[in-house]
C-alpha cells in the first residue's frame, strides 16, 4: 500500500461497546471524519503501528479498519487497540496514530472465541513487526511531538 505509513489524528469517540466488555480487548475509536479520509488504497483489514493518547507516550497498536463482519456492522470503523494498560478511559482525548503495516484482510468468524483468538494472534504479530528497525524508528516520528490539537491526516 503506497499510503503507508499513514498518520492520522482525531478525538476518541464511544464505539460499539464490545472491545472491553465482550472481547476483553479495549479499543479507541475514531470519528467518521477520520474514517472518511482514509486513502483509497488502505483496504479493510488489520494493521499495526504506533499510537499516542493526548500527546503522551507512544505505544504499539493494532487496528481494525472495516465493517467487522462478525458483528455485521453497517458503518465502516477504525478501532485501535493500544498495547498498553491505561488506568481509565480516555474518551474525547486526542488519539494520534501512525499506521505502518498490514497484517491481514478483514474476515468473518464462526464464533466469538475464534474472533478473540484471531485478535490475540494479530496483537502478537504487531508486537513482533514493530520491533523490526524499519517500523520501530517510526515510534520517534515528529508527528507524535507535533501540536496534538491540530487534527491531521496524511503520510
TrEMBL record:
InterPro entries: Riboflavin_kinase (IPR023468), Riboflavin_kinase_bac/euk (IPR015865), Riboflavin_kinase_dom_sf (IPR023465)
Domain of life: Eukaryota
GO MF annotation list: ATP binding; metal ion binding; riboflavin kinase activity
Record field: catalytic activity: riboflavin + ATP = FMN + ADP + H(+)
Pathway: Cofactor biosynthesis; FMN biosynthesis; FMN from riboflavin (ATP route): step 1/1
UniProt keyword annotations, A-Z: ATP-binding, Flavoprotein, FMN, Kinase, Metal-binding, Nucleotide-binding, Transferase, Zinc
Enzyme Commission no: 2.7.1.26
Regions that span the bilayer: none
Top-rank EC class of the record's enzyme: transferase
Single GO biological process annotation from the record: riboflavin biosynthetic process
GO cellular component, one term: mitochondrion
Pfam families in alphabetical order: Flavokinase
Domain Riboflavin kinase, first and last residues per copy: 1-131
Cofactors named for this entry: Zn(2+)
SMART domains: Flavokinase
Keyword Nucleotide-binding: yes
Function in brief: Catalyzes the phosphorylation of riboflavin (vitamin B2) to form flavin-mononucleotide (FMN), hence rate-limiting enzyme in the synthesis of FAD. Essential for TNF-induced reactive oxygen species (ROS) production. Through its interaction with both TNFRSF1A and CYBA, physically and functionally couples TNFRSF1A to NADPH oxidase. TNF-activation of RFK may enhance the incorporation of FAD in NADPH oxidase, a critical step for the assembly and activation of NADPH oxidase.
Protein name (record): Riboflavin kinase
